[in-house]
Amino acid sequence: MPTDEAAREGADAEGVVMSSARELAKVLAASREFQAFDAAQSALIADRAVHERLQTFERRREELRRASAWGGASAGDQRALEEEWESLSHAPALQAFLAAQSELLAFLQDVGTVLIAEVGIDYGALAGSGGCCG
Fold first, then answer.
1. How does pLDDT run across 1-52, given as a tens digit for each residue?
2. For residue 18, which of 25, 44, 73, 124 sits 20 to 30 Å off, Cα-Cα?
3. Domain ranges of the chain
4. Is the Cβ–Cβ distance between 60 and 82 less than 8 Å?
């Protein structure tokens, strides 16, 4: 059973971790990569025509995914969806969004690599195998 002192130390450590996490979130939100992503996302949403086409595409893709799971999607359905994406992907607002998203993801992966190195924990090794898949 933990002592009062051990409980206080645990609470103090938790407070430091939470404070550090909040500070990291502020730094990430102020980064050039996040700011570019946020602006590109806002621009995409503001372009109503492209945004509506994208939402329609996402609905069709989900419908096709479900139909494929049950063998109800044809090669023609898949081709039509690919053609729709090809057309949609030329929209400048979507291109800017996808580029900003890619840059943000690369930045966050770099930040994650630094955090792992600083903390000294190999999360891949911790995940290991197990559960239903391992």
1. 556 665 566 667 788 888 988 999 999 999 999 999 999 999 999 999 999 9
2. 124
3. 1-30
4. no
CA distance linking residue 111 with residue 116, whole number of Å: 9
Residue with tokens 């900003």: 100
Q: Tell me, what DSSP letter sits at residue 89? A: T
User: One-letter amino acid identity for 34?
Assistant: F
- How many whole angstroms separate alpha carbon 51 and alpha carbon 3? 57
pLDDT in tens, 62-105: 999 999 888 888 899 999 999 999 999 999 999 999 999 999 99
DSSP state of 31: S
Residue 57 · residue 85 · CB < 8 Å: yes
Residue 61 CB partners (closer than 8 Å, separation 6+) = 81
Q: Which two tokens stand for residue 79?
A: 């081709």
